From TrEMBL:
It comes from Parasutterella excrementihominis YIT 11859. Signal peptide: none annotated. Its main location: membrane. It comes from the Bacteria. This is Transporter, MotA/TolQ/ExbB proton channel family protein. InterPro entries: ExbB/TolQ_transport, MotA_ExbB_proton_chnl.
Amino acid sequence: MEIKEIYSLIGCAGIALVVIGIFALYITVWNFLYLRGVLSKFKQHFRGMDKVTPERIRRYFGESTNPLECIVRDIVMTHGAHSDDIRAEVAYLFHKHFKPVNNALTWLKLISAVSPLLGLLGTVIGMVTVFRTISENVSPDPTMLAGGIWTALITTVMGLVVAIPALMAYYYLMLKVKELRIEAVEYSYRALNIRREPCRCAQNLEEIEQKAA
């Protein structure tokens, strides 16, 4: 089927919906694989974290490029000393390190909102074509009328077909993002406790020496 035939069947609004649908599919697949890979690598690296020495934690944070691990690193190295509200700090750092994901989710939500409107636009264009054909011909050709009605109906269906999965994918990916944020908060607290252990040990040692003196 040639491009002209496809254009005559679905119109300009239908072509736009096809492009938007492909873009939404790309965003969904890329973000799903990306978030899944980030979480799996994060859990692999931090398995048995409570048994890791503070020196190893500090050395490992400096070498990591995983965005979720970078959040924990920034909390431990800088933000943990500046604020007691770790959740607020994680929210800020999450927005900073996961900016491409946030932008992609914004586009996905926009697609879910715009697709039905494009379908409605195609419906209006199709009905305009039908009424123009009727007004220009005393005995309009049923084939021409059917073509206009087809365009009107198919674009509405296409708009919903793009919008519904896009909206479902948006909320699913938002749940994955919330899961990553919870993991970041939990491991940030654990990493801070591990790093503070040497300080506590030093304080206890000083107290023991003072009592002995």
